[in-house]
Amino acid sequence: MYPPSLTPALISDHISTVHNIFGTPLSLVEIGRANRKRHAEVGDTLNEQSVGGPLELEAIAAVHELSNEVRSIAVSEILPRTADLIFVNIKTVEGHPYTLELTMKGWRIASLQCDSMNGDYKRVGLHAKYYENARQLLEEISPAHSQYFTKCLTEKLTQLHAWRKAQEEMEDDVESFEKQTGRASTSLKKEAEKKDGENDTQSDEGLMFTVDESSNR
After folding, report:
1. Degrees, nearest 5: CA angle 72-75-79
2. Are 89 and 109 in contact (CB under 8 A)?
3. Closest alpha carbon to 109 in 128, 93, 96
4. C-alpha to C-alpha distance for 80 and 86, rounded to whole angstroms
5. What pLDDT digit, counting tens, does each position of 49-90 carry?
6. Coil/strand/helix, residue 106
7. How many C-beta atoms surround the C-beta of residue 105 within 10 A?
8. 137 and 98 Cβ atoms separated by less than 8 Å
9. Residue 118 and residue 134 in contact, taking contact as beta carbons nearer than 8 Å
10. Phi, psi at residue 54, to the nearest 5°?
11. Which PANTHER family does the record cross-reference, listed alphabetically (predicted)?
12. Cβ atoms of residues 105 and 86 within 8 Å
């Protein structure tokens, strides 16, 4: 089991640091930070005519990176999806469904149901709070996501270890087979050489016998 200090957030930060060497924000944390900075500078409007912009990239990064920390996560196919607004459905490991709204301002909980924009009017504060990135939001609504992530990581590493062990055993079997085949081939070669030698000896004896008979005549 991995230590409690190994959390999804720390791994994401490490990945961000590595990618920052090349100046390319690829993690959801870095993409979110870049989009929030852009919002602070130019506001909500992106002035883009179609999807595929910075919000689309951030949503895809969230779906990809958080897939092992929740039961399900996907961009909504029912709710509006524009360059300025994207909705993401998520079900936490605790089994709670949410619709998350993503704008340049950040992430917020739009609804306590999937594919819905109707919030709980009794919990206005929950729906009014914005988060810089999806991971921050997930840490608040799903306390068990870190343990679930660690469990999935452990299972995948165990599977990888088993696969590598099977590969090593297969390579050992192949090597053993090749050695046995090589020994058998060498043995057959020696037997063939021995047989050829015996045939040569018999031929020489026959030749000597023929020569002797000719001499006697």
Report:
1. 120
2. no
3. 128
4. 7
5. 545 689 999 999 999 999 888 999 999 999 999 999 999 999
6. strand
7. 16
8. no
9. no
10. -60, -35
11. GSK3B-INTERACTING PROTEIN
12. no
Domain-wise residue ranges, the chain: 23-142, 143-176
pLDDT at site 21:
39
Tokens in use for 56?
A: 């689309």
CATH topology (fold) of 23-142: copper amine oxidase-like fold (3.30.2280)
Name the strand (E) or helix (H) holding 35: helix 28-42
Instruction: Determine the Cα–Cα distance for residues 202 and 200; give it in Å rounded to an integer.
Output: 5
Whether the CB-CB separation of 30 and 19 falls below 8 Å is answered with: yes
Unique residue bearing structure tokens 């993409």: 31
> HSE-up of 136 (CA within 13 Å, CB side)?
13
Write the secondary structure of 68-79 as one string of H (helix), E (strand) and C (coil).
CCCCEEEECCCC
Contact indicator for 103, 55 with CB cutoff of 8 Å: yes
Q: Which range, 86-95, 141-150, 173-182, 191-200, is most confident? A: 86-95
> Which pLDDT band holds residue 158 (cuts at 50, 70, 90)?
confident
Mean pLDDT of 112-137: 92
- Taking the C-alpha atoms of residue 191 and residue 38, their distance in angstroms, rounded to an integer, is 82
Q: Note the pTM of the prediction, 2 decimals.
A: 0.61
